[in-house]
Write a structure and sequence with these properties.
By secondary structure, the protein is an all-alpha fold. It has one domain. The protein contains three helices and no strands.
Length: 95
């Protein structure tokens, strides 16, 4: 958990910094609001889906399935992300 949480903090800082660096200043509020909405709005859907899975295949099966899928998706996102090819921060967006 400690390693995961440390990695999540590093990811969050870098993700937000890059997102802010490449977004024009006049769109920062809209972009942040949209990302926050998508993140928060998906939580109830995940809860419903997780509950349905737990009812169908049991709690252990659900946790195992979600864990394996989460690792696979995270690995895929890291491997095929265009961010990996960046060697320097993009130029600040013009307003």
């Amino acid at each position: 958990m400690l390693v995961f949480d440390f990695g999540a903090v590093l990811y969050g800082i870098n993700y937000l910094a890059l997102r802010q660096a490449i977004t024009p200043d006049r769109l920062l509020g809209r972009m942040t609001a949209t990302m926050r909405f998508l993140t928060v709005a998906s939580a109830p859907l995940g809860s419903l889906f997780g509950g349905a899975m737990a009812t169908g295949i049991g709690l252990r099966g659900t946790l195992l399935t979600v864990g394996v899928l989460g690792l696979a998706l995270a690995g895929s996102a890291v491997m095929w992300s265009p961010v990996r090819r960046h060697r320097q921060l993009p130029a600040p967006a013009a307003d």
